[in-house]
Design goal:
By secondary structure, this protein is an alpha/beta fold. The chain has 3 domains: about 35-115, Immunoglobulins (Immunoglobulin-like, Sandwich), CATH 2.60.40.10; about 125-400, Aldolase class I (TIM Barrel, Alpha-Beta Barrel); about 410-485, Golgi alpha-mannosidase II (Immunoglobulin-like). Helices cover about 25% and strands about 25% of the residues. It has helices at about 1-15, 130, 135-150, 185-195, 220-230, 245, 255-270, 310-320, 355-370, 385-390, 395-400, 445-450, and strands at about 35, 40-45, 50-55, 55, 65, 75, 80-85, 90-100, 105-115, 125, 160, 200-205, 235-240, 275-280, 300, 335, 345, 350, 375, 410-415, 415-425, 430-435, 440-445, 460, 465-470, 470-475, 480-485. Strand 8 and strand 9 form a beta hairpin. Helix 8 (about 310-320) packs parallel to helix 9 (about 355-370) and helix 9 (about 355-370) crosses helix 11. The longest helix is centred in the middle third of the chain and has 16 residues, at about 255-270. The termini are far apart. Bound molecules: alpha-D-galactopyranose. Alpha-D-galactopyranose (GLA) binds next to loops.
């Protein structure tokens, strides 16, 4: 009942005057019938465990089926979770189907068993922006439960990543890294997440300590990877921090000095019998985008930390990502940092993100265009209807998850207006027309797309509203219109 009321208020926001509608919802409600919102491709290495919760929205109960599943995989038809492992490398086309009282739908999933994982940017949740150093297993579980109950998991969000501050102050007698008393059982947490079709992420540093002053992996790398493997870890964020103390002792620091600890970890991860998505975090130093892929990164942070201030979104999103498109692609993504949406606070008490509704539409739109990992930073147990609506637009997510994996770049700058665009795998294009100025602007869409280098623009869709584009549009200050259209290629 409460949920319905929140949805109604959020949708009404879109038609009320701005004073009454700070957080207005643009994404139309999902239909009751099943709809596939997930990636078209999934990568895994031969023999590695696969856990994939089928991202279908629609009313429950829902029954799932999967035809042509390769040998070694099975489907839990009531929960919609595919698990198992595939030994034989190759491309498998799996035919998915979901059915409920309102209808049924089919979808195709291409399973690529080979060397490359993270064929589309990883999606999920990370504890840092909400809990900072105050994270606990209970809080992580609360967000994981909410990921499912809120329906976010039906849109492909699947990683539950513990950031800094899970480590105990001392290793055990065998040198094994221990969780602290806020984390009674990380292996149990991993098992529970896997049972839900979700994946577990962990955090460490190549230095002796982490940014938060907790134990890092220096000189214990092999032992730590073994521990994480035993716990069922699926994702590692490896954060430079404490390693800088060592770098400071060198007479001159080269790119090679930065690369070394990351390659060491890559080699250890490659030996594990499971796929561990490797997130390199060193704030973009030494042009990480030029070597992150070689160092084994499935993603690498390109900048310092994002916070919930418009200036940071502007700097990190619009200034620092320019020219990086060529370095990203399936299996290796530029990472402009986690989403600063919902209830954040970095461990100092939760509060609503300070970004306005329009700034949040801009944030999510730009991240989708940038093929950025979509890691939600807000506490999901307190997810509000606006944030849920913002994060569950399957047409926006499809841009981020497009299998071609071509990151957008800035194609036009015209006063306060910027147009960022990218080609999509079906031959069409996605573009965001952003208003970075302080006043609302009326914009002729076709004119701006032409200015950005597209010609012969055909059918055009407004992705947030999920309807055909208007000819002209009023774009609020710090706001956006996100488009998908057919055209001749941009310059
Ligand atoms: C650094 C990273 C953050 C977070 C903290 C943890 O600042 O950039 O994303 O992981 O460390 O201490």
């Amino acid at each position: 009942m409460l949920k319905r009321l929140l949805i109604l208020l959020c949708l009404l926001g879109g038609v009320l005057p701005v004073a009454f509608a700070q957080n207005y919802c643009l994404t139309p409600p999902a239909p009751a019938a099943p709809r596939y919102n997930g990636p078209a491709v999934l990568g895994a290495r031969p023999g590695s465990p696969i856990i994939f919760r089928l991202p279908f929205s629609g009313e429950r109960p829902m029954k799932f089926s999967a035809r042509r599943l390769p040998k070694g995989l099975s489907l839990n038809a009531a929960e919609g979770i595919i698990s198992g492992s595939v030994k034989k490398p190759g491309e498998y086309v799996v035919k998915l189907k979901a059915k409920n009282a309102s209808g049924s739908v089919k979808a195709k999933l291409i399973l690529k068993i080979g060397d490359t994982i993270a064929l589309t940017p990883p999606m999920g949740w990370n504890s840092w922006n909400c809990w900072g150093l105050e994270v606990s297993q209970e809080k992580v579980m609360a967000s994981a439960r909410a990921l499912i109950s809120s329906g976010l998991a039906d849109y492909g969000y699947c990683y539950i990543n513990i950031d800094d501050a899970w480590q105990a102050p001392d290793r055990d007698a065998d040198g094994k890294l221990q969780p602290n008393d806020r984390f009674p059982d990380i292996a149990g947490l991993g098992e529970w997440l896997h049972g839900q079709g979700l994946r577990l992420g962990i955090y460490s540093s190549p230095g002796a300590t982490t940014c938060g002053g907790y134990l890092g992996s220096l000189d214990y790398e092999e032992k730590d990877v073994q521990t994480w493997n035993d716990w069922g870890v699926d994702y590692l964020k490896y954060d430079l921090c404490g390693y800088r103390a060592y770098l400071k002792t060198l007479p001159e620091v080269t790119q090679a000095d930065h690369i070394k600890p990351y390659v060491k970890m890559k080699e250890l991860l490659a030996l594990q019998p499971r796929d561990i998505c490797y997130s390199i975090c060193q704030y973009g130093l030494m042009e990480v985008w030029t070597w992150g892929r070689e160092a084994g990164g499935n993603l690498w942070r390109t900048t310092g930390d994002l916070t919930d201030k418009w200036e940071r979104v502007h700097r990190i999103g619009f200034q620092k990502q320019r020219g990086l498109a060529g370095y990203s692609g399936p299996g290796h993504w530029n990472d402009p940092d986690m989403l600063v949406v919902g209830k954040v606070g970095w461990g100092e008490g939760l509060r609503d993100t300070r970004l306005t509704a329009d700034e949040q539409y801009t944030h999510v739109s730009l991240w989708a265009l940038l093929a950025a990992p979509l890691m939600i930073g807000g506490d999901l147990s307190l997810l509000d209807e606006f944030t849920r609506n913002l994060l569950c637009n399957h047409e926006i997510i499809a841009v981020d998850q497009d299998p071609l994996g071509k990151q957008a770049d800035c194609l036009l700058e015209d006063g306060a207006i910027q147009v960022w665009g990218r080609p999509l795998c079906d031959g069409s294009f996605a573009a965001g027309i952003f208003n970075l100025g302080e006043e609302a602007l009326s914009v002729d869409i076709i004119e701006k797309l032409k200015g950005a280098g597209w010609s012969g623009i055909g059918s055009c869709r407004d992705l947030w509203r999920q309807k055909p584009c208007p000819q002209t549009v009023n774009i609020p200050s710090h706001g956006v219109i996100m488009l998908k259209f057919n055209a001749m290629g941009a310059k």
